[in-house]
Amino acid sequence: MDERGAVSPLMALMMLVLASILFVMVLGLGQLRLLRMEVSRAADLAVLAGLQELDFAALIQGDLVLDKAAAEAAVRSVLEENLEPLAARLSASPAEIAEGAEVVTLNVDDLRPYSEEPATSPEVWVEVEAPVKWLGEGIGPSTVRVVSRAVVSAP
Amino acid sequence: MDMVTFLSEQRGAAMAEAAIVLVVVLALFFGGIELGMMYHAQQVLSQAAAEGARFAALYGGDTQEVRERVEAQLAAGGLDIEEVDVTILDEGWNQRVTVRLEMSFDFIAPLLPQRSYTLRAEHSARCEKH
């Protein structure tokens, strides 16, 4: 019985290289996906905080009106607080990412981004772009981008 | 059988190769499963922390209800709540409220180095409860 190496050395080497590439890709993409979800949760909590900043003078009159400057500040600060625990996996500082995020605050009849439709109640939007370290220092630069929105629903 | 004949024998080569290949394949297999479980645990921790932060913002800081809410999320994700450290930091109305979760994850896949990793998740919200 002669079975002169059922697995040829070339085949073995190829399989090992392919399996390693696949494994690294799965690891890296898993990491990236995990990070995206965490950034997305950060954005969700940030817009909810922004929506709390209502104009008290208008509220007394019974109107729901956002204090736009305060809302934007709240979004950025909560976003930064939520990105801080992820700092080791991001290649920009949480403060830079929070500063660079695009925040849109809408009162009734202000036009929404993308659709240009008028808002029917106060809304807060945020678009976060976070550059990430992929697989440690990374194979190449990657960015995680999320959009989040919170809306006041009429009581 | 002299030495030259013995060394040029080819019987059993397939079995020896199979043994080597099997070790590598099994290590990748078990390692993959274990890593999947680790990602899952991290995911559940993060979700529970975010949910806990939102809940704490609505219904007040470090209370039994908030802890129960966090624990319900962890249990729903299949984690052992006994093994997760829950820290809730509350700075009062319109200030930061933070839920921090920490657990140690033992990497126990066979054929690979055994060690334990610390998984952490932390999320913050603005406290809305007076």
What class do helices, strands and sheet pairing of chain B give? Answer: alpha+beta
Mean pLDDT of chain B: 89
The main sheet of chain B orders its strands as 1-2-3
Binned strand content of chain A: 15-25%
Q: Helix segment count of chain B?
A: 3
- DSSP helix count of chain A? 4
Q: Tell me the fraction of residues in β-strands of chain B, as a range.
A: 15-25%
What does this structure look like?
The complex is a heterodimer of chains A (155) and B (130). By secondary structure, chain A is an alpha+beta fold. Chain A has helices at residues 9-50, 56-60, 68-83, 94-100; strands at 102-106, 123-132, 142-151. Chain A has one domain. The longest helix of chain A has 42 residues, at 9-50. The model of chain B has no long low-confidence stretch (mean pLDDT 89). In chain B, a hairpin with a 7-residue loop joins strand 2 and strand 3. Chain B is of the alpha+beta class and 130 residues long. In chain B, helix 2 (13-59) runs antiparallel to helix 3. Chain A binds chain B through residues 1-7, 12, 16, 19, 23, 26-27, 30, 34, 37-38, 41-42, 44-45, 48-49, 52, 74, 78, 81-82, 84-85, and chain B through 10-11, 13-14, 17-18, 21, 24, 28, 32, 35, 39, 42-43, 46-47, 50, 53-54, 57, 94, 96, 98, 100, 120-126, 128.
Features:
heterodimer; A: 155 residues; alpha+beta; three-stranded antiparallel beta sheet; 3 strands; B: 130 residues; rod-shaped
Quick recap:
By secondary structure, chain A is α+β, with helices and mostly antiparallel strands. Helices cover 45% and strands 16% of the residues of chain A.
List the helices and strands and how they pair.
The complex is a heterodimer of chains A (155) and B (130).
Chain A: H1 9-50, H2 56-60, H3 68-83, H4 94-100, E1 102-106, E2 123-132, E3 142-151
Antiparallel strand pairs in A: 1-2, 2-3
Chain B: H1 3-7, H2 13-59, H3 64-76, E1 84-90, E2 96-107, E3 115-126
Antiparallel strand pairs in B: 1-2, 2-3
